[in-house]
Design brief:
- Helix 6 links the parallel strand 4 and strand 5.
- The N and C termini lie far apart (40 Å).
- The chain is an alpha/beta fold and 279 residues long.
- It is globular, with a radius of gyration of 17 Å.
- The chain has a single domain, classed as Rossmann fold, CATH 3.40.50.
- The protein is built from 10 helices and 10 strands.
- The strands form 2 sheets. The chain has an 8-stranded mixed β-sheet, with helices on both faces. A two-stranded antiparallel ribbon has the order 2-3.
- Helix 1 crosses helix 4, helix 1 runs parallel beside helix 5 and helix 7 runs parallel beside helix 8.
- The mean pLDDT is 96.
- It binds S-adenosylmethionine.
- S-adenosylmethionine binds next to helix 7.
Length: 279
């Protein structure tokens, strides 16, 4: 049974990296008028109230988006992310944090299409309510990994697939690699973004090695660590692995990641940018 609820974590440092990257990827794909198909395999509830008991339990957003909210100067690409979060709030106070579905819905153009998957029985109801009856959006109460494979290649031939599991089950680490391999075989020109947490470094080393050996081309890794790797110290870092990234993304990350380390991490924080596979 799934117990993970993203409401406890909304707006934390992991969401900052994930959603900042997501916006960059969508913006880039939308530079052309041609329609884009966006697939979110693990959608969550869609959006979150930061004054709810869930969000206030550990107030993770305070050390994430909360640290950027009042900054007067931000790197340009990060400014885009913060102003989008601001536009989804009313007034100057940070009270709402959008999930990946709400961010993407906000950016969706009339010609684009969005397909969401969510398994949790409570989250799916919230997601349905937030997405309302938008003809561009399909919400599925189903397993996002196996079902998204079947949608590829999308008829638009231009697509972004976000894979953002909660890694509640240790098998998720192997399953995401297997899924990416299958997706890539069907749609090698798609853009893929895989989020991962660093709780035990050896799991991520293994994930990276498997991806390096997968035959998938043109793959970059961007990681933000708010503390040194640890044992039993929870999530100290997280990363995004992007297949077929925009050529502009690496330079944006080179500017944004050091800034995020400085703003969001303790003295042992660091970032990594790796080319996992060449073009
Ligand atoms: C990290 S949260 C998603 C957060 C969301 N992507 C965002 O950025 O706002 C992961 C979600 O995946 C759901 N989930 C777990 N396994 C799933 C699966 N196989 N298919 C679809 N959803 C799943 C969980 O219920 C949870 O809501």
């Amino acid at each position: 049974m799934l117990s993970y609820r993203h409401a406890f974590h909304a707006g934390n440092f992991a969401d900052v990296l994930k959603h900042f990257t997501l916006i960059q990827l969508i913006d880039y794909l939308q530079q052309k008028d041609k329609a884009v198909c966006y697939i979110d395999t693990h959608a969550g509830a869609g959006g979150y109230a930061l004054n709810s008991d869930y969000a206030l339990k550990n107030s993770e957003f305070v050390s994430g988006i909360g640290k950027l909210w009042t900054q007067e100067t931000l790197p340009t690409a990060l400014e885009r992310y913060v102003s989008l979060i601001k536009s989804l709030n009313v007034g100057k106070q940070l009270l709402r944090y959008p999930g990946s579905p709400l961010i993407s819905k906000h950016l969706l153009r009339p010609q684009d299409r969005m397909v969401l998957f969510e398994l949790h029985s409570t989250e799916i109801k919230l997601l349905h309510t937030l997405m309302k009856r938008d003809p561009r959006i399909t919400v599925n109460h189903d397993d996002g990994l196996s079902n998204a494979i079947k949608l590829l290649p999308p008829k638009e031939r231009r697509g972004l697939i976000l894979i953002d599991p909660s890694y509640e089950m240790k098998t998720d680490y192997a399953q995401v690699v297997d899924t990416l391999e299958k997706m890539y075989k069907r749609f090698a020109t798609g853009t893929y973004a895989l989020w991962y947490p660093v709780i035990e470094r050896r799991r991520i080393d293994k994930l990276e090695n498997k991806l390096r050996l997968s035959g998938i081309k043109n793959m970059q890794l961007f990681e933000l660590a708010i503390a040194a790797d640890g044992v039993n110290s929870g999530m100290t870092a997280c990363g995004m692995i992007v297949i077929n990234p925009p050529w502009t993304l690496k330079a944006q990350m080179q500017e944004v990641l050091p800034f995020l380390v400085q703003q969001l991490s303790d003295n042992a924080g660091f970032f990594r940018i790796e080319q996992l596979a060449d073009e």
